[in-house]
Amino acid sequence: MTKPIPGTAVAQMTLPTVDGGTITLGQPKERWSMLFIYRGRHCPRCKRFLNKLNAVLPAWTDRMDVAVVSADTRQKALEDQKEFGWNFELGFDLSEDQMRALGLYVSEPLSGTETDRVFAEPGAFAIRPDGTLMLVEISNGPAARPDLEELLDGMIFNIENDRPVRGTA
């Protein structure tokens, strides 16, 4: 597994979204971005976390773009979006190579009832407008998730005070 290094460019990739658009990483943008990776439709902890994100989404999007991505098919991602009423940009089909390029932990399904493909364990990436990583949070399992209120508060502080990247080694 390649460990992502804050202060360096995020891996370049383009991911499809359920609405027919794309999420592009590794290129400059006008705004800060926050990318959340979730395990997929099979994960109830992911749903709780993403429902909390959706509830506070306006506070996030006032400050930065927010995208959420999994390895799920478009159909599974759409089912989640419809069932839970998510309003964030929702990507799908994250490949194993892309997971590894982001430094994510990759898991095999425990059974066919869980899911039918490898999937990424959770991750969160704050990306500066120049395309470099400001913050990296990666978990090897579903139970470890960032506190959304604390994370947003910290990101607002970093953005408003142009704080340097920390923990680069």
Write the layout of secondary structure elements.
Blueprint lengths: L12 E4 L5 E4 L7 E5 L6 H12 L1 H5 L3 E5 L4 H11 L4 E3 L4 H6 L4 E2 L11 E2 L2 E5 L5 E6 L9 H13 L9
Parallel strand pairs: 3-4, 4-5
Antiparallel strand pairs: 1-2, 3-8, 6-7, 8-9
Q: Sheet bearing the most strands, described?
A: 5 strands, mixed
Number of separate structural domains: 1
Query: What is the strand tally?
Result: 9
| CATH homologous superfamily (4th level) name | Glutaredoxin
Helical content stands at: 25-40%
Low-confidence stretches: none
Label the CATH architecture.
Answer: 3-Layer(aba) Sandwich
Distance between the termini: 16 Å
> Would you give the CATH topology?
Glutaredoxin
Mean pLDDT: 94
The secondary structure category is alpha/beta
Query: In which order are the strands of the major sheet placed?
Result: 5-4-3-8-9
